[in-house]
Amino acid sequence: MLTDDALRTVHEYACAPVGMTLLTRERGADVAAVVRGSSVDHPSIQLADLLAGAAAAVAERHEGNPSDAGEGLWPVITSFVEQSSLLPYDDPAAQLRSVKERPVRH
């Protein structure tokens, strides 16, 4: 389903600077290319699909749509959540703090 145009767009966004203001702006990722792959040829793609499905189940749990999979996977998946992300999983109120209270990322 990923057309060449869609892959080009993903690459452009991955390389683009991120941040709402000049004070919070960070460089984009140094991505050389975004390419298609086959899970038959690359087991890492199978793993990525598996993790994406697990994360989706946990996200559904967080949104109030529990499932046995979401409940069982929650402790595993949340350990991968970056604590300094914009919307921390365990502290949603953190997004409301002022810029002065947020740690400076380098």
Rough outline: extended
Report the total helices: 3
Helical/strand content category: mainly alpha
* Residues in β-strands, percent: under 5%
Segments where pLDDT lies below 50 for 5+ residues? 94-100
Number of domains: 2
State the separation between the terminal residues, measured CA to CA: 36 Å
Strands, count? 0
Average of per-residue pLDDT values: 78
- Radius of gyration (CA) equals 17 Å
Residue share in helix: 25-40%
Largest sheet: none
Oligomer: single chain
In short:
With 106 residues, the chain is mostly helical.
Give me some keywords for this one:
106 residues; extended; mainly alpha
Describe the overall structure.
With 106 residues, this protein is an all-alpha fold. The chain folds into two domains: 1-36, no CATH class; 38-100, no CATH class. Helices cover 40% and strands 0% of the residues. It is built from three helices and no strands. Helix 2 (43-62) crosses helix 3. The protein is extended and about 40 Å long. The relative contact order is 0.08. The model is unreliable at 94-100 (pLDDT under 50).
Blueprint of the fold:
Layout: H1 4-15, H2 43-62, H3 68-77
Helix pairs in contact: 2-3
